[in-house]
C-alpha cells in the first residue's frame, strides 16, 4: 500500500512539473534559510554550555546608580575579591584580568630580537582558583601550574603558533611586553570557540600583583574595570535570590563606610546570560541580545511558513484538477483515511526532495553564513543535533503544508468530484488562498520595511558627522612602558619628516572608542559632582590630528605630566554652564587628587559609538598614559607613507611588533553586529519576496489555465488586452494593499524599537512604507503580467476549442 | 438482490428544487441484466449513484441483499461498495498517472489483497479482456475501446456481485461499443448482475429487461425475450 502511495506521489509530481518545481524551489530555499538561521541561533545559544557546572556559574557584576542614570559594569573592584571570599565561604570565587594588544616575544634561533606576536585578545592574568569554577582539559600541567609568579599556560594552538608544537613549548620562556619573563608551565587543550572566555595565554595572577601599575591594576575599592571579572561557583541548590540579597547587604556595608556619591551594588549574572546581556561586556568578541536571536528565529520560521503557504495554495488550487482522480479512487473503495494518507505522502515526497536540495544549498552557503555571523568554529551540517533538527523541520513542514490540502481533497464528494463540480470546495479554497496570500505579503512587506530602515540607519551612521576627522588617520598601538616613552619625541620628529605625514599625536585613546575610563571629579572647588567625567590623555597635536574644534580658550601646553585641562560641551551642559568662556580659568579636580586649571572648551564630538550619548569629557596631557600614536596622512600615496612609517617604527622599536589600523575602519567595527544584521535582513527579505512571488506566479499560472476559456469568450465578445490584464491583477493588487495595512503598523512598531538601540538615529521616514507597498505591487504585477499577457494574447479560437 | 421502495432524491439549490427521483420502486434479482433508459435529466444517473452506494436517498427504503442500506454512513457504504459493486463509466475514468496494470490493481489494493495474489488476479482479468499486451501503458496511450476494456477489467477484478454501467458505450464507436456489450453479456452469463444506463436501443437489446424512466419515475418495463 505504501509503495503504491509513493509511486502515485512520484507520478503526480512529474506530471505537474511546473507546480512541483515551484513547490520544491520555494520549500528548499525556505528550509535551507531557516536551517541556516537555526544553526546560527543554536550556535549563539550554545556559548559556554560545555561547562559542566554551567547552571551554577555566575559572574559578580556591578551596578552603579547615579543621580539620573544607572551604569552597568561587568567588572568589580579588585579589593572586593578577598572580601567576597571572607563573606561567602561556601562559594568558590575565581578572578581574571584580561589585557588587550600585549606583545609576546618568543626566543628564536635566527632572530636576535625574537619572534614578536601581538595578542589582541585571549591573554589573561588568572587565578588558579578560577579552575575551581570552570573546568578545562589539560595536555600538560594543571591548575597548580599558575601558582607561582612568572608562570604562563598556553593553549595548544597558541603554543603551536609560538613554538611549532606544544611539546616544544613546555619549559620555555617567553617575554610579555618586553618586560616580564614567563615560563611555559602548562598546556591547555583548545577552548571551544563558542566561549566567552577565549583562554589562550594565561599568566599567573601573582605576576600581575608584581606589575600592577603597568596593567592599571589597582587593588582598591574605587576603580572598577570591565577587564577584571570575578566568577563564582555556587554550591548545589543555592538560591540566587538570597545570595543577591546578601550581596546587596555586602555592597552597602563596603561602600557606605567609604563615602560615596553613587549607589554601587554587586549582583550575580548567570553564566547563561553573559553572552546575551548587552548591558555588560564579555571577554568574547560579541554579546548578542536574545531579541536578535528571537528575531532571527522568527524570520526563519516566517520564511518556512511562506514556502508552506505556497504549497497549500498551489495544492488546493490543483486539487480541483485532481478531483476526478479522487472521485475514482473513492468509487473504487478508497476511504477518507487512505486518501488522506496518499496526499500526505505526496507532500512528504516533495518535502523530502526539498530537504535534500536544502541540505545542498545549506552545505554550499554555510561558509558565507559563518562569515556573516562571525562564527569561527568549524560548523558542520551533519552533526546528529542538526540532522535531527532538519528532520524535525521536514516533519513539521510536511504536516503544515500537507494537512489542509489532504483534508480538503479526502473530503470530496465522489459524484461531484467525477463531474468536476468542485464549486463549493473551491469557493472555500479561494478565501483561504486569499488569506494566505495576504499573510505572505504581510511578511514580505514587514521584511522590506525593516530592511530599508536598517540599511538607512547603517548609512546614517557611516555618514554621520562624528565631530572629528576619521579619514586617513593611521593608529599605531604600542604600549606605554618607559623604553617606549623615552624614544617618543625622537620618533615623532622622524615621522614628521616623512613626506606623507601631516601631523602626529600620542594619546591614551582615540576620540571615539569603546573604552570607558571615567572618574569622580569636582568642578571649581565645589563638592564632588554626581556624575563621572571621561578621561582621555593626549599631547598638544591631538586637536590638529583629529580635526577637533576649540569653542573657547586655547589648546593645552606641552607637558609630560597633567598640568591643564580641556573640557567638552557636554560636560559644561551637565554642569549647567551656558557660556563656554565662563569655565576658562576655573579648576577641575579628579578623584581625590590635585586641581588643574581649565584652559579650553571643545565642540562636542561623538565620544563613543552612536548607540551611546556623548560622554562628559576631559582631555589633558600625561605621557605615561600614551600608548597610541595617531598619524594624520596626506591622502595621496597612502601606501608609500604607510611603508615609510613602518620602517621608522622598526628602526626605533625593533623589539615591538608593528600594529597599525586606519581609524575609520576601527570605527566601522563598532557597528559590525548591526552591519551583519542588516545584511541578514537584506538576504532574507530578498528570499521572502522571492518565495512569495514564486507562489503568486504559481497561482496566476493556475488561474491562467482555469480562465483560458473565460478569456477566450471575453475576447470573442470584444474585450481588450488591458481589460484582461486587469482581470488577473486586480485581485492581487487588492490583497497586497490589505496586507500593507497589516504590515505597516507591525513594521513601524518593530523598527521603532530597534532604532531605540541608537541614540543617534535616522528618521523613520514615510518613504520606507510607500516604497514597500509600491515595490510589492510592482513586483506582483511583473510576476502576474507575464502569464496574464500570454493568456490574454492567446488565440481565442484555440482557447475555446480546448474545452 | 436489490429492492427499492418509494425512493426519493431531491436536489435543492438556492432558487430551485429538482426532484430527481420521485418515489421510485424497482426490484432487481440476482443474475439479471437490466437496462435503464429515458430522456436526459430524468434521473437515471442519480438512480445509479444511489444503487452504487455513492449517494444516499432522501427518503425511501433500499434493501441490498436484504440489508437496509438507505441510512448507511459513508464509511459503511464504502466498505459494502468495495466488496460488492463494480463501476463502468461513460468517460472511462481511469487514473492518468497509473498504468493499465496499476489501474486494474487499485480496487484489490483497497480491499487489502496481498501483492502476489493481486498480480495473479490482475493478469487473469487483463488476459480475459485481451488487453494484457498493454499492461504497462498509460491510459492516454490507448484507444477509447481499449480504455473502456480496462475500465471493465477494473470493475470486475474484485469479482463483484453487481456491475453498474452508466452509458458504457456513450463515447465509443459501434464496433468498440459492441465489443464492450459482449464483455458485459459474458460477465452476466457467468452470474454477475448488471444494471446499465443507456441511450441506445441497440445496446438495450443485450439486456433481459428495460426499465424506462421519465421525470424520476418508472413508466414502463419491457421484458426481452
Ligand atoms: N448535483 C446536482 N444538483 C442539482 N441538481 C442536480 C444535480 N445532479 C443532478 N441534478 C438534476 O437532477 C436531474 C436528474 O439528473 P441525472 O443526472 O440523474 O439525469 P440523467 O437521467 O442521468 O440525464 P443524462 O441522460 O443527461 O445523463 C436533472 O434535472 C439534473 O439537473
Ligand atoms: Mg446521466
Automatic annotation (TrEMBL), chain A:
Limits of the MacB-like periplasmic core domain: 20-247, 483-646
Pfam families membership: FtsX, MacB_PCD
Record domain ABC3 transporter permease C-terminal: where: 298-414, 683-793
Keyword Membrane found: yes
Classification via InterPro entries: ABC3_permease_C (IPR003838), MacB_PCD (IPR025857), Macrolide_Exporter_MacB (IPR050250)
Entry GO CC: plasma membrane
TM spans (from-to): 21-41, 293-318, 339-366, 386-404, 436-455, 679-705, 732-752, 764-784
Molecular function terms, GO-annotated: transmembrane transporter activity
Keyword list, A-Z: Cell membrane, Membrane, Transmembrane, Transmembrane helix
Protein's cellular compartments: Cell membrane
Keyword Glycoprotein (UniProt): no
Topology within the bilayer: Multi-pass membrane protein
Protein name (record): ABC transporter permease
UniProtKB/TrEMBL annotation, chain B:
Record flagged with keyword Translocase: no
Domain ABC transporter residues, every copy: 2-225
Superkingdom of the organism of origin: Bacteria
Keyword Transport in record: yes
A cellular component annotation (GO) from this entry: plasma membrane
UniProt keyword terms in alphabetical order: ATP-binding, Nucleotide-binding, Transport
InterPro entries: AAA+_ATPase (IPR003593), ABC_transporter-like_ATP-bd (IPR003439), ABC_transporter-like_CS (IPR017871), ABC_transpr_LolD-like (IPR015854), MacB-like_ATP-bd (IPR017911), P-loop_NTPase (IPR027417)
Single annotated GO MF: transmembrane transporter activity
Similarity comment: family membership: Belongs to the ABC transporter superfamily. Macrolide exporter (TC 3.A.1.122) family.
Protein name per UniProt: Phosphonate ABC transporter ATP-binding protein
Organism: Niastella populi
Lineage: Bacteria, Pseudomonadati, Bacteroidota, Chitinophagia, Chitinophagales
